[in-house]
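The pair is set out directly below:
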Amino acid sequence: MFHKGFTLIELLVVIAIVGLLASVVLINTQNVRLQAYDAQIQTYMHQLRNAADLNYSQSGETYSAICDESDDTLSNSGELGTLETAVKRENGNQDVSCFESVDKSRFAASSPLRAESGESWCVESAGFSVELNCLAINTYRCECP
């Protein structure tokens, strides 16, 4: 007698193959999502440097009020506050480290990245934008402590 349909073994093999393919797709999707967050962080940090440069030219050639000196984070006032909120939304609500030189002539700011654990994106007044192998900076230059 000839039966139409699939056996239980055939169905289980197909389900296992589909499950394996779905898990591969989900793993790759998560990595792409984290890389997209990092691209947004880099874009916002570049905008932060542009806003700081605009502030520099408008405030008598000083980077005053870029950083909140009480806790070494980015100032949350005006345009900088908007950018700080945007960066924190992309980096998992982590603070943006920020340091100014004593004479307010230089600054650097860094934000943790999401795709690469233990790395951050840093911008500074000299025009550098660079990925660092540390989470935060402790000087007005893009260097790990």
